[in-house]
Write a structure and sequence with these properties.
Domain Galectin: 1-137
Number of strands: 13
Helix content: under 10%
Shape: globular
Oligomer: single chain
Distance between the termini: 12 Å
CATH topology: Jelly Rolls
Keywords: Lectin
Radius of gyration: 14 Å
GO molecular function: carbohydrate binding
Structural class: mainly beta
Strand content: over 45%
Number of helices: 0
Pfam family, one: Gal-bind_lectin
InterPro entries: ConA-like_dom_sf, Galectin-like, Galectin_CRD
Length: 145
């Protein structure tokens, strides 16, 4: 079930998403975005600073961004697939230059800011993922309805 969280990110912030991969999962997606929209596919005018997509069964994760001109260039990183029933911790550490991403303590690379950090207002979690908890700098977040 898609979930949306209001956030404010600054350099030094750490966002943690504890989740579980459901049965027959294809992909689990996480957007750091401007605005409270809940679109699986971005619409004209949407801004996504970081689209992080775990592609189950392909041993890869994809990082990208979306602005007025559409999707940017994908960055694909090899990463062992998560299996149905697996629990995971997705951790996004914010620096002045990039987002540094880890899954279960294993680094999957940094993603350079392509959209100004101050434009990020929401975390949108969607596709095949069960969210157990989300925290920002150790503070538990509640979904926006």
């Amino acid at each position: 079930m898609p979930e949306l969280y209001g956030i404010t990110l600054t350099p030094g912030a750490t966002l943690q998403i504890h989740g579980t991969v459901p049965e027959e999962a294809d992909r689990s997606s996480f957007n750091l975005q401007y605005g409270p929209y809940k679109n699986d596919e971005p619409a004209e005018g949407d801004t996504i600073a970081l689209h992080f997509d775990i592609r189950h069964g392909t041993d890869s994760v994809v990082k990208n961004h979306f602005e007025v001109d559409g999707w940017g260039e994908e960055e694909v990183t090899d990463f062992p697939s998560l299996n149905p029933g697996d629990s995971f911790l997705l951790e996004i550490k914010v620096t002045a230059e990039s987002y540094s991403v880890q899954i279960n303590g294993v680094g999957v690379g940094a993603f350079q800011h392509r959209v100004p950090l101050e434009e990020v207002t929401h975390l949108f979690v969607f596709h095949d993922v069960t969210v157990n908890s989300v925290s920002l700098n150790g503070q538990q977040l509640t979904p926006v309805h």
